């Protein structure tokens, strides 16, 4: 293998799937090149043409899972295969990690679809795929948020050069905000005071530098399902329908659409054949802001103060030291249309809202003409133009009314006690990332994507240990050492990895480590002895049996005045002596002592190996768990989201495993997966509560919600 190591991540989102190819130097070469700068993370790189996205998302194949391979994945696998050298393919891990679109599918459909994906990738590619349950799965929103936080701080350099990013109060990392079509995430390291107060709500993240040294971070992460732009739009339209008068009127005024635009309820252009309800744009952006505000669910009960959206507990944000970077819709909605040629990349609410107001107050005919002339760039097409006013209002509400980002240009920015901030510096790119919020797409020509965070964690885990007892790379509950729910980035990093891919008995006997060869040799001798014993005939076995009984003082005639001695094997071994009527009775009495099955398989529990959330209703309150893991569930766990119900997630925890054959014929370590209890969302059973007298972490239910086990 050459000097480069490669990795492939497929981001299976709600609207499409994007393949990312990354590479980094072999650690020995990286260490030599780094020299005195060795205390740094592996340098993970990608190129713009190493990424490819296709539509729609994999969740659209829920009703036709057999087509997801050749109609969707084949093109992405071929793209990655053309980039990676032939001699590196078999050593290149591949991950397909699905997000909110797949979380919304029913359990059975999700499982079947994931099985189809696994089968296709394993059969039609040579990439490293040791365990489908780890490499191909639905990840929870909190895991997605944590990976995004890693990617952001990695690209900004705060991991390797903390002194160059001193925000005051000993704080040097940046907060992360992400919003897709179905969900939204936030991740940040609270200030020292809040970190101590909410210690049990934080996630311990451990990385390894190329010199073998470790670095640890404690991060708060949470996710809101159905707070992405598409799901928020769906909830908004449902609220319009609920508020409309009952009657024959099929027209619903929509202030979030440009004036004069008519669409179906699901946003499609209205055709003459459509005779159902339709939306009529009124172009009143101020009213759009007012009508989207209730979607934040700010009035939901908050049993564990403080809270942000939907009654979700979040430590107080100190904007003096917490500077947030927003990606995905935060970037697309604030820049791709409303930048309008302006070079000032800084987010200023006053300027931004003025641009949005100007755009959304135009009638639809004027907007269409501007789209055709590419007045707002080539990326803004007719469909995007019809959606962007709602998206802009939603982004503004989430940022300022939801999260509390100071309204720069519209309000005083002095400290407010709960969420303080400092005076915002002058506009312009020269100010860097010291504002309370900055939307970005790329940093140093590299796209900010949570997939990069996943690969940084994986590459970091591949650095050889300098000392045998070094702590592993991964994340879990905020306790010392290795938490019971610790999530490892790859299968081979589990403690006692021999239990995962043991190979054949011949390998273990002749090629294994000394600790494995000795027990294997003894087992081999035992097998030989037993084989010879059973081949020697019933008569010879009987003689051996009597000799053994004699040696142990159990043979010979019994004295008439003494009770008869019990024979060594109770007379119930059918291989000795003549057959007798007791043979059948022995089988009945002793049958339960013989266990001829292996308990557990990679698909044996929690709905066929991939437990997931309930989908009985939408927009449910995230439930908090007492810790990532639960003492009454298996310890080999996967995580899916912010609920206490079993779901899938990314990563595996150490525990006593069982073995089973996977679909490729490899022996793999398996156990049931439980959900990734909200990354630092609930109190842990491994330490004291973060605050005295804190109420129950169970989240309140909105009147329109029922438990959904994802966010």
Automatic annotation (TrEMBL):
Residues of the active site: 144 (proton acceptor)
Binding residues for ATP: 181-185
Domain of life: Eukaryota
Membrane as UniProt keyword: yes
Keyword ATP-binding: yes
Region (Disordered): 599-633, 669-711
Record keywords: ATP-binding, Hydrolase, Membrane, Nucleotide-binding, Transmembrane, Transmembrane helix
Alphabetized InterPro entries for the sequence: GDA1_CD39_NTPase
UniProt-listed CDD domains: ASKHA_NBD_YND1-like (cd24039)
GO function term, MF aspect, one: ribonucleoside triphosphate phosphatase activity
GO annotation, cellular component aspect: Golgi apparatus; membrane
Residues annotated as transmembrane: 518-537
GO BP term (any one): UDP catabolic process
Entry's family note: Belongs to the GDA1/CD39 NTPase family.
Identification of the protein by name: Nucleoside diphosphatase
Organism, scientific name: Aspergillus heteromorphus CBS 117.55
